[in-house]
Structures are given as structure tokens and as C-alpha cells.
Specification:
The protein is α/β, with parallel strands linked by helices. It has ten helices and 14 strands.
Amino acid sequence: MKRFALLLLALAIFACAVDVACTATNPFDIFDGSNLNQIVKRNKLIVGMEVSFFPFEYANEKGEPIGFDVDIAQLAAKELGVEIEIKDMQFSGLIPALQSGKIDMIISGMTRTLTRSKTVSFTEPYFVTGLCALLSKKKAPDTQDVKELNSPDRILAVKLGTTGDLVTAKLFPKAQVNRYKEETACAREVVTGRADAFLYDQLSISKHQKENPDTTRALLKPFTYEPYAIAIRKGDADFLGWLNLLLETIKSDGRYQELYQKYFQGISP
């Protein structure tokens, strides 16, 4: 009787094991649910960016998005064999839009950071820059180092949600920080002498200084490391691997260099 009972127990355990094996997620199920597969099935790549960050993404005279990031996104859609839809939105709303499934990826001069990586996955960097400072000739005429901006009598302008915003608490805890939604508003604060400095990426700071030589000057030696990367939703290893391969491919076959020369030649500091 004991042998019979043990036999029944063994058969039950075997049946459970078979059932678990049959219902367990396999690699085909994972790929079927991946965003990469869904993009191909729907025949459209939906990309989020803030179209006001020259020369990465900005609007031409017809109001159409153009720029370095736009061209990379278009290359991604071309290699996937799908159409592309670009959704223009405020920078601070990009990650929430990605998490909610409104967009498939972000390419918008976004720095990959440890904090952001808690909520999204990043590709390898496709561009590296650093934060610099646009200074007011009126309020900060003698400032030679960004460390001098860490003082209670200093006013810093930063764009909401950018790394310039994120680093102020750590690097400039004593300064007064004013946050704005628009890059142009930050630059205007310095140009008009209402702020000592605007903290932003090197190319943009150089551009704003050249446009306002009488009222501003620039510290163009980066004081942070800013690797721009493409962001996607967490957990999609297939799409992440594909995008990394895309970046590797266009860097090796010359297409990346062509885009770099197209948008950055003559404007780099």
C-alpha cells in the first residue's frame, strides 16, 4: 500500500512539473511581448522629444522637427522598416510618457544618470558633452570658476528636469536656484542681468553667448560628464540590444560621422 501511495505521489509531482514547464514563459513569449516586436507589428516607431534643443531637435521654417536626434530616430525607423511619428512634448514629461506607453523611446539630448536609470533603460551613449555656464557680465563680471557660484548672493537659472537642475542641490547648495520650463527663459535671465548664470550643455551655452556677446560671457570648460543616450521602457532587452547595435553600426559605417559633420561642424566651441 505504501508503494502505491508513493507511486501516486511521484506521478502527482511529475504532473505538476510538466504543467509548470508547459506554462513557463519561454524566449518566444518574451519576444512576442517586447516593444521591438510591437513596433514592427504596428508599422510605426513613436519617438518622444522636446523640439527646442538646437542642433539636436528643433523646428525648420515649416515647423517640422529636424536635427541630429531627429535624423538618428529616422535612421532607426528606416532600419526597422517602419514609419516614424515624433511627439513634441516638454522635457519633464518625456519619461512619464515613456512609462505610460505613449511613446516607444526618448531621444532628446537626455543624459543617462543613475537616478533616471531607476525608471528607464538607456542605450550606450551616442553623444558626450558636459555642463557649462553662461554668465552675466552685469552680475558675475569677475567669475572665473563655477565653484564661485556656490554662494547665497548668487542666482542660478536652470531648465526644469535637466541635469543642470539636478546637480544644483549637490554642487551649488548655497545658491538661489530659479527653474524655468524653457531654455530661452533661462538665457534671458542672464542676458537681462536678473541671474548670475545659466547652467546648460556646452553647445547651447556657446550658442547663447555668441548671440549675446555684449551682455554675457561663458565658461566653456565642462564641469560635469553628460553622456546622451536613448531611453526605453524598463525590461525590454530585445529593443535595447537592437538600438545599441544600431548605434554601433552607424558609427562604424560612416553614417554617424556624416550626421555629426552636418549639425556640429562650425558650431563646436
